[in-house]
What does this fold into?
Amino acid sequence: MGVAWTKRAGGWLLLAVVLAVGCKTPFSTREPENPVTKQSTWVQPTSPALVMVNLRTAMAERNSSNYLRCLADTSLAPASFSYQPESAVGAANPGLFLRWDKESERNFLNQLFAFLPSDSVSSLSLTLIRENTFQDSVILVQEYVLTVAHRRQQEAPRQMRGQAEFRLLRSSEELWYIRGWADYATGTNPTWSALRAYFGK
It folds into this structure.
């Protein structure tokens, strides 16, 4: 009986040693993972061209905060942001764009970005067509191609092409903001207005 007890005790001792070596603190919690932070690239908009840079980067990074920072409101500039849709989209969605403002853009972006997979790529290409410069304002006409790989139904456009007329104002801090944005079709492709109509309702 003494021999059997000794064998059992030895077995328990061996098990305790294995546990101690294999797991230094068996009841400790694992190290927390590093939090995933949203990428944010921003440059002070000291020129109209830098506003366009911020707009492109905000779409690529899916950063609604930086996107909205590009748009004017009365706390930043002498006037608030307004949007004029492409005419066919406006006619097909009566009333939707009548009071489209910065808050409407926020709601649109939140809906759109919610349906973008985390591994998807969004891109905005802007090509300057015309620039008219005034004392404290600038008009930029840009040809755009916007690509977003959302997960909504097939009828929601994923690549938009058109022409945007941006009216920018300079603030008292010498920073530039988009005061007005008008959208125009350049062919049969869906426009940015069509994307707004789908996700902004």
